[in-house]
Target: Gnk2-homologous domain-containing protein
Amino acid sequence: MDYPRLCICFLFILNFLVCLTTPQSEFRFNRCSTSGNYTSNSTYATNLKGLLSSIPTSSDLNSDGFFNASIGRNPDQVYAIGLCRGDLAVPSCRSCLNDTVQAITQACPNQKEASRGYDNCMLRFSNRNILGSMDDGFLYLGWNEINATNPTQFDAVLRDLLLDLRDRAAAGGVRKFAADVVNYTSLSKIYATEQCTPDISEMDCGRCLDMARNFMTGYATSGTVGATSIRNSCVLRFEPYQFYQPTADATPPPPEPQSPPDTPGTLRARGNNNRSRTIIAILIPTASAVLIVVLICLFIKLRKRKQRNVKSPRSTHFKAWKYWREGAGSNLIDPVLRADSGSIRDIIRCIHVGLLCVQENVASRPTMASIVLMLNSFSITLPLPSEPAFFMHSSIDPEFPLSEYNLVAKDSNLSTSKSKYAMR
Ligand SMILES: *[C@@H]1O[C@H](CO)[C@@H](O)[C@H](O)[C@H]1NC(C)=O
Ligand SMILES: *[C@@H]1O[C@H](CO)[C@@H](O)[C@H](O)[C@H]1NC(C)=O
Ligand SMILES: *[C@@H]1O[C@H](CO)[C@@H](O)[C@H](O)[C@H]1NC(C)=O
Ligand SMILES: *[C@@H]1O[C@H](CO)[C@@H](O)[C@H](O)[C@H]1NC(C)=O
Ligand SMILES: *[C@@H]1O[C@H](CO)[C@@H](O)[C@H](O)[C@H]1NC(C)=O
Ligand SMILES: *[C@@H]1O[C@H](CO)[C@@H](O)[C@H](O)[C@H]1NC(C)=O
Model:
């Protein structure tokens, strides 16, 4: 067996796990209006430049992650709206809007009206007054190509969740944002957020989110496990994995010490333990990964040594393979992670790749290039591993049934990127 190659393989897996802890804001849409152009030395250009450059440092963002302002006089008046996802901390919000300002100026160099959005924030500017009024105009719809295992059941659970979040987001105060998670099966969950710009009324927010939800369910295939629907005044998203911060990030730094009343529909910090939970959530997967890698490497080394002397006893089972084969790969994961983390499918996938790396037949072990591909893209379906080289032969049926865990692992092939885009 190729021992160094094996360990390099695990290092890639470890690297991947570490990468999981640094989420990035994914680009969603860019629209440059065709309704009017300005010239580079016009008053409109100066106004626009001034207004956009003030957004990332604006103190407006402190309280609600929302920017709304205008500058100049008709006909050169410019209006702009910036909105960060409701759970985002202020520095991340500023940084996202800063990136958006840079990018939108390059993407739409002379259009009087444009909009651009990422997972973390969106920005619109116009020569029309877009402030303070609901606009349910379409901006973006994207959805996952992976279907839930039971679409009817999935859609029912999802619908209840989305209706609940709509009401909570609309009733929100400073931030019209709501996030929640529900159990879909005992092993998979649905994470969702809904948000409106805070300058519109509760009723308008509800209408905008209804529009976003109805258009999405009418357009996207039913049973799809994740989708994002963005209109001018609201955003709706659900995924099979945790994509928002369930932590203190949601709460702006309170100007006065008195504890604010819980805004309905907002995820609020409950004491200091949120920060430590975040740290634990990052530390535990990394530490567990290191531990798993070290243990597996040690085990292989010992087994290799033993094999030279003793003819293997049937009773010896390699735990990872055994659990995997029985569809219970998650038994290898620390119970704390199992109960609390949305990354279970990622870990299962890592174990899956790990098992592929220890195939008896060298030819069926993946190459480095394909491992990198497997770890970076969830849309690639992994081959099912057969018995690893160190597994002692026994009489288990090779055609093991796909249990729920395998299905979860399959469902999760989607997570990050594979979406279809609909533009209108
Ligand atoms: C504005 O400029 C774009 C190119 O940047 C051009 O395609 C478009 O036709 C122009 N629109 C008007 C109304 O002049
Ligand atoms: C804008 O600059 C161009 C040359 O780059 C010049 O011909 C034009 O007169 C200028 N327009 C205004 C309004 O200053
Ligand atoms: C915004 O981005 C520019 C260049 O990308 C950078 O120089 C600047 O420091 C950033 N500003 C903030 C507030 O992040
Ligand atoms: C999901 O289901 C739809 C039909 O409802 C089908 O067209 C599509 O191919 C399915 N996608 C996958 C990845 O199985
Ligand atoms: C969801 O499942 C977790 C275990 O995965 C369980 O601890 C929790 O109580 C369940 N929540 C609900 C509302 O059933
Ligand atoms: C900006 O939005 C706030 C709500 O966050 C609202 O109170 C204010 O009137 C808005 N300003 C403008 C100019 O529309």
Observations:
- Residues 273-309 form the longest helix (37 residues).
- The two ends are 55 Å apart (CA to CA).
- Residues 56-57, 94-95, 98, 102 surround 2-acetamido-2-deoxy-beta-D-glucopyranose (ligand 3) (CB under 6 Å).
